[in-house]
Specification:
The chain folds into two domains: about 1-35; about 35-123, no CATH class. It is built from six helices and no strands. It has helices at about 1-20, 25, 40-55, 70-80, 85-90, 105-115. The longest helix is centred in the first third of the chain and has 21 residues, at about 1-20. The model is unreliable at about 10-25 (pLDDT under 50). It binds heme C (HEC). Heme C binds near residues 53, 69, 78, 83 and 87.
Length: about 120
């Protein structure tokens, strides 16, 4: 009897830890199973990251710092002048972004870097 309840407790713990890991992708979308491709799509991968992390400030008619990041032509400006990567890498000389929060997950930063390295395609 004692052995049985011990087994129940142990399998309970195992099950619970299983759930914990399964839910990581739901709790932190974009962190689990994130493998940046060499050439991420602007519309399908880059814009959704910017919409989720940046565009409550950087979109619309009066965006923060007058910088819009909600369309290709504007994002291209800041990708070209270095401030996009400078700010999200928290590099010296740039305002760290997203403002008032920690760095974005490495995988998301890597996606944006790969999109730039692959030629900043409008795809
Ligand atoms: C809470 C609002 C807010 C969010 C979210 C935010 N920004 Fe900003 N951003 C600002 C403000 C305000 C400035 C003007 C500089 C400052 O006040 O730090 C700025 C400045 C910038 C600059 C110019 C930096 C420089 O030094 O030239 C860039 C590029 C930028 N943001 C990109 C981003 C990106 C990319 C994200 C998302 C990863 C983001 N921002 C998220 C408010 C925000």
């Amino acid at each position: 009897m004692k052995k049985l309840s011990m087994a129940v407790v142990i399998s309970g713990i195992l099950l619970m830890s299983g759930c914990y890991y399964d839910k990581e992708g739901i709790l932190y979308p974009g962190t689990a199973n994130c493998v940046p491709s060499a050439s991420p799509s602007f519309n399908e991968e880059i814009l959704p990251i910017l919409d989720g992390r940046c565009n409550n400030c950087h979109s619309g008619n009066s965006p923060s710092a007058n910088i819009r990041l909600d369309n290709y032509a504007d994002v291209l400006i800041y990708a070209n002048n270095g401030s996009l990567m400078g700010s999200i890498n928290h590099a010296g000389g740039y305002s760290p972004m997203p403002k008032n929060s920690g760095k974005m997950p490495n995988c998301e930063i890597q996606k944006i870097q790969n999109w730039i390295s692959a030629g900043k395609l409008n795809n």
